[in-house]
């Protein structure tokens, strides 16, 4: 391999495929390699045989679950926020032409032992069983304040400075109860913990407005999801990269990241071949994650995430028989003081990911004890009878350095959330480190057919 590339991308997870597509569109000469013979890496979608082979190599899938080809089970479940950053990237790159989307039927939050739909505007707040009469009035005023805010019009500020006052102060101004703060911050703002309350309110305001505007776009929930599973996303960005001249090599062993005497990236060795490039970007598994490394430690483990993939023969009880749903269980509701919320994502045959009358629910959270499966029990108990279950505990890796000194750029592991905003943040972060400037997305209408 005498050819030299601008960038080598290692791994075909969604983050890597998005970067590959964006870099190719930017005019970079990209070589994309993966040790696996399939797209998606950790974020792949598996058919029934692949699912059982991965988790129970000695067991074949039960015949009653239907045909292999009807299944595309996500290893890492995430939904797309209709007006969010990933949607903007999909529209900016025109990758939407390769994909079909369907709306997620409901967004729910767990409170006081039961699940309720997340209210997303003043009218839903008034009808919500999550609040008493007086609290509904306060919540209505809070949502009206957010919707009416105009930076240039002090009359809309009601004495609040979003850039100085904390979100805690905003909640206090409207007298909102802790339980109401829980569902606003966690189910709408999608914060993982309560730390955001002690910071300036602007980011929380923007997140809640993003949620409500996404909700207004399609009505039932703010989320959309690609037909045939999330594995379609990396493949679509790979197709984009190929159109712009990107080269793909699957089923290719990556034996060494080659550096020069100053520690700067030179190339990647596979067997006795070495291909050269100016930069490399890839997922943590290609840079010593989980292995004892001699010399430089490029990634560290910052926690673990537990996920349970559950096969159901019914919708989740309490969701109005929804064919798909997101449920967020705020940490405070189940006494998880140190870690993040518990997330439940459910899809079904409506999304072409499983056989008719089958539902796939995935429960996930960050591990904080030595009994991970016990930690997701509150989520599992909401599912009703579970036909089959596959539990994994995966390390969360993060790079130790930005990569600007040695031209080695490493993405982060996928977290426990059931939305893509943290993935989009990682794409933006890695892009800025690699290119030296912000990723600017074209201003287009982000209306994705769902």
From TrEMBL:
Q: Name one GO biological process term.
A: vesicle-mediated transport
- Do the record's keywords include DNA damage? no
| Keywords tagged on the record | GTPase activation
Q: Give GO cellular component annotations, separated by semicolons.
A: cytoplasm
Q: What superkingdom heads the lineage?
A: Eukaryota
- One MF annotation (Gene Ontology) recorded for this entry: Rab GDP-dissociation inhibitor activity
Among InterPro entries, the record links this protein to: FAD/NAD-bd_sf, GDP_dissociation_inhibitor, RabGDI
Q: Give a yes or no for keyword ATP-binding in this entry.
A: no
Mind telling me which SUPFAM superfamilies this protein's record contains? FAD-linked reductases, C-terminal domain, FAD/NAD(P)-binding domain
PANTHER family named among the record's database cross-references:
RAB GDP DISSOCIATION INHIBITOR, RAB GDP-DISSOCIATION INHIBITOR
The UniProt similarity line reads: Belongs to the Rab GDI family.
Record protein name field: Rab GDP dissociation inhibitor
What species is this protein from?
Answer: Phlebiopsis gigantea (strain 11061_1 CR5-6) (White-rot fungus)
């Amino acid at each position: 391999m005498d050819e030299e590339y601008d960038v080598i991308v290692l791994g075909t997870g969604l983050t890597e495929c998005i970067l590959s597509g964006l870099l190719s569109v930017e005019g970079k000469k990209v070589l994309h390699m993966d040790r696996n013979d399939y797209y998606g890496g950790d974020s792949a979608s598996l058919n029934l045989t692949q699912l059982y082979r991965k988790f129970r190599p000695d067991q074949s899938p039960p015949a009653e679950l239907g045909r292999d080809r009807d299944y595309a089970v996500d290893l890492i479940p995430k939904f797309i926020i209709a007006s969010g950053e990933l949607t903007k990237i999909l529209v900016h790159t025109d990758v939407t032409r390769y994909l079909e989307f369907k709306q997620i039927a409901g967004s729910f939050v767990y409170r006081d032992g039961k699940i309720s739909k997340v209210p997303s505007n003043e009218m839903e707040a008034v009808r919500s069983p999550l609040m008493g009469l007086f609290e509904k009035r306060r919540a209505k005023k809070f949502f009206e304040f957010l919707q009416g805010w105009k930076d240039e019009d002090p009359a809309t500020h009601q004495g609040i400075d979003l850039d100085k006052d904390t979100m805690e102060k905003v909640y206090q101004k409207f007298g909102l109860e802790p339980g109401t703060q829980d569902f606003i911050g966690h189910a709408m703002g999608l914060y993982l913990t309560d730390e955001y309350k002690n910071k300036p309110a602007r980011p929380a305001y923007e997140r809640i407005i993003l949620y409500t505007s996404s909700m207004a776009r399609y009505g039932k929930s703010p989320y959309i999801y690609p037909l045939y599973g999330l594995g379609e996303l990396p493949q679509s960005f790979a197709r984009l990269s190929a159109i712009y001249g990107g080269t793909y090599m699957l089923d290719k062993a990556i034996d060494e990241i080659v550096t020069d005497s100053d520690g700067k990236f030179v190339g990647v060795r596979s067997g006795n071949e070495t291909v050269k490039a100016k930069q490399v970007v890839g997922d943590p598994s290609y840079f010593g994650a989980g292995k004892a490394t001699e010399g430089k430690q490029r990634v560290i483990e910052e926690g673990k995430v537990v996920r349970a993939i559950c096969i159901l023969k019914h919708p989740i009880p309490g969701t109005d028989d929804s064919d798909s749903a997101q449920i967020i269980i705020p940490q405070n509701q189940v006494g998880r003081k140190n870690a993040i919320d518990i997330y439940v994502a459910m899809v079904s045959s409506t999304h072409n990911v499983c056989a008719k009358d089958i539902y796939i629910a995935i429960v996930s959270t960050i591990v904080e004890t030595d009994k991970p499966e016990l930690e997701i029990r509150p989520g599992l108990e909401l599912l009703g009878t579970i036909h089959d279950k596959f539990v994994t505990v995966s390390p969360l890796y993060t790079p130790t350095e930005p990569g600007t000194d040695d031209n080695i750029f490493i993405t982060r592991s996928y977290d426990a959330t059931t939305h893509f905003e943290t993935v989009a943040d990682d794409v933006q972060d890695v892009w800025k480190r690699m290119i030296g400037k912000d990723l600017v997305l074209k201003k287009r209408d982000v209306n994705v057919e769902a």
